[in-house]
Each structure stands twice: as structure tokens, then as C-alpha cells.
């Protein structure tokens, strides 16, 4: 996510299911208001240190990361103690009572997380987790792919993708094509936030031409 260092004005970021473990590149995104990080590899709540400097952050989705730990209450209280400006955490509204309780039950984070030594661009933890990772069954890849796409759509108030849109793919196509499609879709949604009206009009014209081309192709096949 080092690209975020070059996007200081970005307002919404969705990086769900991306194997992210380090939030340091986000600390320069001073206009960031919504951050979606579900199902990543964030192992320590110390990573919140980099989010404490973001004055406009109001929505954070951090669930299903290792840092959440076995105690949901302690996790939520710690997040809210360090990010008291949040209005919604993990798709659940933050209350004044929770913010008060967080001062008692939450742990204050005052320093960035310690990093392991890095060799050839790979940290020890990354290398070991990659080596020991077992391949997911293709059926699970399909379910996860569809679920995560719909979560991203939901985060942007978009209509969920029907499951029958995926049913015609073979398992091999599911593994490769779906993951590629969802990564491209998430990237487009992310970068669209950086476009002005003129840029969005160009995108709209391109999309219309692409749709017309697909429709002509379908008619020819019929």
C-alpha cells in the first residue's frame, strides 16, 4: 500500500482481503475519512499508531484481522481509546458511552510497532507465513471472492453482485479471473475518488463504449 504515500488527499480507501500487515504508509493521508481493512494480516493494534495522526478519520472497518484477538470488548475499547473521533467501527456506530468506557478499558498506544529485520525486501514474518500457507480450496475462493466483492459494493452503496453472474465459470477461471476482476474493481473504485468532474466524464464515456461493444458481441453470438 506504499502508493498511499503519493495520495495525501484521498478520502476513502478500501483494502479488504489484501494481506496487509503494515499501516505506516497511511499516516500521510490527512484527508482520509473512511478506511476498510477487513480480513488482512494486521497482527498488532500498535498499527493504530499511524492512524492517530489522521484528523478526519470517521469510519474504520478492521474486523477479522489477527489484531482483534479473542476479546472483542478489549479490542473495541482499545481502538476507540486511540481513535476517539470514529463514528463507526466495524460497521457498528460508536456511542458516547463507549468512548467514556474506552478511557478505562482500552489500552493507549504511544509508539509504533516494532518491525522485524528485513532481508531482500521480505520480512521474516512475511516469509514464514507465505511458506506455511496452504492453498485454499477453489470452492472457498469462489465464496470469498463473491463475498468480498459484495462487501466492497456495500461500502460504496452499490448493488451486490448476483451469484448467478459467477456460475458459468470453471474452477480454474474462478481462481484466477474472479480474483483479478475484484482487484481491478476495488482499484477503480479507490482511484475514482481522486478524479474531478472532467475525469469522471471520460470514465463514463469509456464505460458506455465498452458496454455497447459487449452488447454487440452478445447479439452476434446469439
UniProtKB/TrEMBL annotation:
GO terms for cellular component: ciliary basal body; photoreceptor cell cilium. GO terms for biological process: cytoskeleton organization. Residues 123-137 have a biased composition (Low complexity). Found in a complex with CFAP410, NEK1 and SPATA7. Interacts with NEK1. Residues 153-166 have a biased composition (Basic and acidic residues). PANTHER family: CILIA- AND FLAGELLA-ASSOCIATED PROTEIN 410-RELATED, LEUCINE RICH REPEAT PROTEIN. It comes from the Eukaryota. Residues 72-90 form the U2A'/phosphoprotein 32 family A C-terminal domain. Keywords: Leucine-rich repeat, Repeat. Residues 115-139, 153-177 are annotated as: Disordered. Pfam families: LRR_4. InterPro entries: Leu-rich_rpt, Leu-rich_rpt_4, LRR_dom_sf, U2A'_phosphoprotein32A_C. This is Cilia- and flagella-associated protein 410. Plays a role in cilia formation and/or maintenance. Plays a role in the regulation of cell morphology and cytoskeletal organization. Involved in DNA damage repair. PROSITE patterns: LRR (PS51450).
Amino acid at each position: 500500500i506504499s502508493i498511499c504515500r503519493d495520495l495525501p488527499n484521498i478520502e476513502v480507501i478500501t483494502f479488504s482481503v489484501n494481506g496487509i500487515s503494515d499501516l505506516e504508509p497511511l499516516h500521510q493521508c490527512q484527508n482520509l475519512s473512511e478506511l476498510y481493512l477487513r480480513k488482512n494480516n494486521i497482527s498488532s493494534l500498535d498499527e493504530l499508531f499511524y492512524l492517530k495522526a489522521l484528523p478526519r478519520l470517521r469510519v474504520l472497518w478492521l474486523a477479522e484481522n489477527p489484531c482483534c484477538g479473542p476479546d472483542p470488548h478489549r479490542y473495541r475499547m482499545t481502538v476507540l481509546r486511540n481513535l476517539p473521533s470514529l463514528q463507526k467501527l466495524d460497521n457498528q456506530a460508536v456511542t458516547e458511552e463507549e468512548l467514556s468506557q474506552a478511557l478505562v478499558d482500552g489500552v493507549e498506544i504511544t509508539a509504533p510497532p516494532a518491525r522485524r529485520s528485513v532481508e531482500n525486501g521480505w520480512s521474516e514474518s512475511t516469509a514464514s507465513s507465505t511458506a506455511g500457507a496452504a492453498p485454499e480450496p477453489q470452492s472457498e475462493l469462489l465464496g470469498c471472492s463473491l463475498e468480498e466483492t459484495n462487501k466492497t459494493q456495500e461500502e460504496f452503496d452499490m448493488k451486490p453482485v448476483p451469484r448467478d453472474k459467477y456460475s458459468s465459470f470453471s474452477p480454474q477461471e474462478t481462481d484466477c479471473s474472479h480474483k483479478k476482476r475484484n482487484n481491478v474493481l476495488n482499484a477503480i473504485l479507490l482511484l475514482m475518488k481522486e478524479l474531478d468532474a472532467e475525469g469522471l466524464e471520460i470514465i463514463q464515456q469509456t464505460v458506455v463504449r465498452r458496454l455497447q461493444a459487449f452488447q454487440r458481441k452478445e447479439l452476434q453470438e446469439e
